[in-house]
From TrEMBL:
GO terms for cellular component: plasma membrane. This is Paraquat-inducible protein A. The keyword DNA-binding does not apply. It comes from Xenorhabdus koppenhoeferi. It holds the Pfam family PqiA.
Amino acid sequence: MCSDNHQHDKLVLCPQCDMLVVVPDLEQGKKAVCPRCNTLLTAKWKEPRNQPTGYAVSALIMLFLASLFPFISMSVAGIVSEIKLTEIPKVMFSENYSSMAVFFLIFVQLIPAFCMVAIILLCQNVKIVRRLKIELARILFKMKSWCMAEIFLAGVLVSFVKLMAYGEISLGLSFLPYCLFCLFQIRAFQCLDRHWFWDEIEPAPKFCHMLQAGKPGLVQGVRLCQCCTAILPAQQSVCPRCYTKGHPRRRHSLQYTMALLITSVILYIPANVLPIMVTQALGSHLNSTILEGVVLLWGSGSYPVAMVIFIASIMVPLLKMLAISWLCWDAKSQSSHNSEKMHSIYEMVEFVGRWSMIDIFVIAVLSALVRIGQLMSVYPATGAILFALVVILTMFASMTFDPRLTWDKANSKFALHKNKEL
């Protein structure tokens, strides 16, 4: 006979290490983390419905205001050039740089705006079809990692250093609203607890046997729904709450990860060899690669900015590819590496990966703003597209990798030890 769901309300299955954890009653503003891998499990906010909504509404208002007025302007030899946020993709489309325009539209404007709208609709329990509500929630949490508004803002700040070498830079009226938009959308995600969120849509499904905290879910014959965090029998392939298909471990995780990784390695070489930007000044053309841009910044005395570009655009992608390779090898082999150490590497890969897009957004700003005819113009080059693809592919590679594989050998030792005790 199935046990009542309320008996297991405080049981949470860690999505990173598969440990079943009992979450105590939390005070307002407190968070619960996994005792084994320190992954955030759940949090209790004072106003779990209104706080995310308030920040999301504020973010959308700031984004609207940021779209109305000039963003930044530049003056060269008395000629003034200014742009609005909405004009950046328009300029790139008009100059036949559609790929760069699409990257900007999707990652900087469409996805962040969609996520804020979805948070408002779902947190305020707007009356929509249940299946549509579930699909919105599924897409919301999948798109969270692809919101790159704050990375674009960092790219704008870096581009100021380069722009100051060309002329006088001024901030537009929309710059401050856009900064506030970035802060509000980050805060909206922080105040959104996935467990509470899905319980508001529908209570977690019941399961038919008792579970023991402190033991891995796979050892006990249960798995986690990676979408809605429900605890399900391991053999159940479809979650009855969110209809997401799943398995105890992501199927062919290592194969997909390695395929994406190899492709990104292949593209990484031409992305660094080919020019990413072309500067046209007084009839002459200057091609620059990523490394040449770093050398130029270093030579001009902009040491902090040069270091930021070097770390984000050269070191991070390379180290990320090496780290993912190591994670795949460790998960496949019978090595005895410390699981905590490998998990820390995985978390670092997840955190820093998307920040490599900063150089792409720098080029987007320069290409849209520096349009002063024969006097000076900046254009993106083939290397920029290839580099953006490298960043996107490595992000997909880290997403397809199942971090629980790094803990499975420890889980096997745990099960073997328990069997010997019995």
